[in-house]
Amino acid sequence: MAAGFEHILNWRLLAGSHDFPGPDGGTCINEAAIVAAGLPYRAIRASAECPPCFSRPLAAYALGLNDAMPDAERPRLMAFVLRLAGSADAPAIEAARVKFLAQASVQRLLPPLLDHAGLPALAARCEGARDAQAALAAARTAAWEGGARAQAASQRGRWVQGARASAVARAASAAVAAFTDARCAAEVAEGVAPFVEGSWAAAAAILDEALELGGGAPAIDTDLARRRLDAARAGPG
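The structure assignment produced for this chain is given below.
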């Protein structure tokens, strides 16, 4: 989905916020999206600092992924530089996006980690959650079970088992929080990724699907976006 966009747009995504892009074109995803849309550049430290035309939950999730992804994985987000401006929608749609990000994280990111930690029945429960309420309940159970297993493993000196259980507890706790804070959905991916190959690709796919909820953002011409980004690389004035 995002392959090649880092070359087409001649830009590099970096973790954290930046006062202004340098000659290497380094910014976070939301800062790059602002420039690509032709809006005045601003440093973004939280989704609330994005222009009003940005969906708050999508910007929060994208920012969380941007800051958590290793450098080698972050180019997956480049395609979204053209899609975040104009993504703001009605309150009901934004609420649905928060719910979707959380539920998808429970159904698609947690199960492989739970399997890895020796919790196949709980993995199946998360994957098969029929709605947000069921997904939330499954995530709460996973957080509790992970914490209990981590404590038991620590007491027995089973450090590898304890590390897996601790990862379950952290990721599942983030999933619970994601039902009210979209950025926490990115923390689910961050907790799962060290143990499960392909987690960052799955997280980017979740962002792609969340963007399709509602009216969607108007397309930004790639050539125009590249010219805007190149101008920003040259510096103010």
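Interim note for the steering committee: The chain has two domains: 1-89+215-237, 98-214. Residues 98-214 form one domain.
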